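Re-running the complex after MR caught last week's input typo. The corrected sequence lines follow. Everything else is unchanged.
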Amino acid sequence: MQGSATGLAYRGRTASIGFARGPLVRVDASTTCERVAGTLVEEALALRKAIDLASGQIAELAAIAGGEAAQILEFQVALLEDQDLIEAIFSSIGEGNGADVAWCSALDAQIGDYNSAEDEYLKARSSDLADLRDRVIANLRGGEGRGPEIPGGSVVCADDLPPSRFLEIDWSAGGGLALLRGSPTSHVAMLARARGIPMVVQLGAIPQVGATALLDGEGATLELDPSAEQLRLFEQRREIHRKSRASARAILRRPTASWRGERIKLLINIQRVEDLDHADAQYADGIGLMRTEFLLAERGGLPDEETQYRAYDAVLRWADRRPVTIRTFDAGGDKPVPGFTIDGEANPFLGVRGLRLCLARPEIFTVQLRALARAAVRGNLRVMFPMVTAPDELEAGRKLFADIVQSLQAERIAAMLPELGIMVEVPAAALAIATFKAAFFSIGSNDLAQYVLACDRSNGALAPLMDSLHPAVLELIARTAEHGRRTGTSVSLCGDMAGEERCLPALLNCGLRQLSVNASSLAQIKHTIDRLSSGGGLG
Ligand code: PEP
Ligand code: MG
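Corrected-run output:
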């Protein structure tokens, strides 16, 4: 914290860029378990009612929010459907504990487990559990305890904020989110970024009482009761940000920038069909990466062939003639999938994940390849295998795929083998790139950097070392791009680096001419390439 003449300034970490000015509203829910308990039967009935009500509330929120938000809420629904957990809570009521005490202690134990996980992704899930705990407790108390009404345009401040609470807030009048703890990789941070709500996390302790707040999601600061000078500087920064966003969006409509006379193709990364609803997606040159493992997180277990075919077909229809690169399931590592991935691996990032896992589970892989082979006749489809180490893996995948196409054709079902490519994200694949007979390559810089630098990509403590601009990472990117140029094979980069302005000069200098980014970064990246190619520096 820094004191100033009249205002206080706090610094945290950016979770979503943008600016908000408004009253500071604290929304921490009370979780103390005070309630007068009834008989055993009354307590069990009260808890059943509170849980059913919570299920309905979450389902309603998911239906309104749709897309990624609905997927995030699935985690809470799955927990309410965990019979072992729920039965243990009812047994605890049977032993004489009040409904709220039984519920809180079971949920607190789960929250403790998630909080002690080393993996930052799992740690971030503890706020989803705290949300569920508080929702059921509020229902048990007849709706009390979900925090105050929030006036539009407020800077909402909480210790941490669960996704469902975020979705209940009316953000139509703007506003922002200031969290004392929280993480930039949490689900609520993803939602804030998708909706353009500025968000700063890890602010530490700040006063309880309301005040005028200035939240700067770029500088990661929160200023309270600002002086006239603080206000003036804040408005100046906000205006610069607004102008740069406006010119970036205007640039979207122009043909893609070129770099040293060569056209740069900008594609988008999607996880689900709904991501194509983003207003900027239409300006992309195609889809550079569809992460199909997110289909596995949807309700009802592993998706059947028809469900998958409909999803792939919808993406191809949206793209029309533009290329669509669909990546086969990249489950495992930081993306565990119950019933598919292997539990208890000592080191899941180096374990049976990506193509390794698919080849080990042909009964699951076959369903996906059948859906893809059928979709291939419907548009400009390219299929990409993730986490490939050796050419034999690519060839094993190709053979299985070709056999599947043959058997579909024998069944008189329209199908074809699409172009097959690989992710270049294992250092061995980048170093031995010439040994792969792939139709295209796409560099996964997120994993490539983690393996080259020996830094778990989800471990925040390693952030200073996890530098994707490290010369060793750039060397492998440049070698891959050079191999593509020499052999006339298409090479793109679809990791997060492609969406980071500061990385663009290095990526272009490495020889890359195709980048795939989230739709929300498309405008800014196009704008930056334009500026760089007309001789300007980074903004
Ligand atoms: C990557 O590793 O850079 C990549 C694009 O894939 P993911 O982030 O899904 O592992
Ligand atoms: Mg990867």
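None of the earlier attempt is carried over here. The first helix runs from residue 40 to 65. The CA atoms of residues 138 and 249 lie 43 Å apart.
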